[in-house]
Amino acid sequence: QVQLVESGGGLVQPWGSLRLSCSASGDILAINGMRWYRQAIGKQRELVASITKSGTVYYIDSVKGRFTISRDNAKETLYLQMNSLKPEDTAVYHCYAEIIKPITGTSDAWGQGILVTVSS
Predict the structure, then answer these.
(1) Are 82 and 59 in contact (CB under 8 A)?
(2) What's the CA gap between 71 and 56, in Å, rounded?
(3) Which of 38, 55, 75, 113 could be 92's S-S partner, Cβ–Cβ 3.0 to 4.6 Å?
(4) Tens of pLDDT along 47-58?
């Protein structure tokens, strides 16, 4: 119903910056909150940041002050600006959308994932 496609990942040196984008399509009016997750090799998936439709944000402690989540509802795009990157930020990053419809209730959508590698 909702499709999410991430872009903007790649290889970056420590203290460098990247901006991830997540473009949504499909039943975009049903999208409520959106999130960025990441999963590093050998570790569980973790929530990095989230944003409500009204703009309230949350960050995991390890990225506070370095990452900024934002969304452009008109452009149907979610962003994650990542500054001062550290090797421990290396992971596959996934975009997530909370889908809410009056009759069917809550569901979700996931992007395919995009690799961010922070290495010197």
Answers:
(1) no
(2) 11
(3) 113
(4) 999 999 989 999
